[in-house]
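Priority: medium. Attachment 1 of 2:
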């Protein structure tokens, strides 16, 4: 997804986050799972 500052200025927060909300709806991921997920990914990346 390409991010352009001009496009963001003309959009509401709901319009910007809509793809993220839709993706979350397709998964069982919950907001409280994100912190754990980030730590696991960093640990895997850094070995």
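Attachment 2 of 2:
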């Amino acid at each position: 997804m390409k991010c352009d500052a001009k496009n963001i200025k003309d959009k509401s927060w709901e319009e910007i986050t809509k793809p993220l909300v839709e993706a979350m709806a397709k998964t069982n991921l919950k907001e409280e799972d994100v912190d754990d997920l980030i730590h696991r990914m960093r640990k895997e990346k850094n070995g």
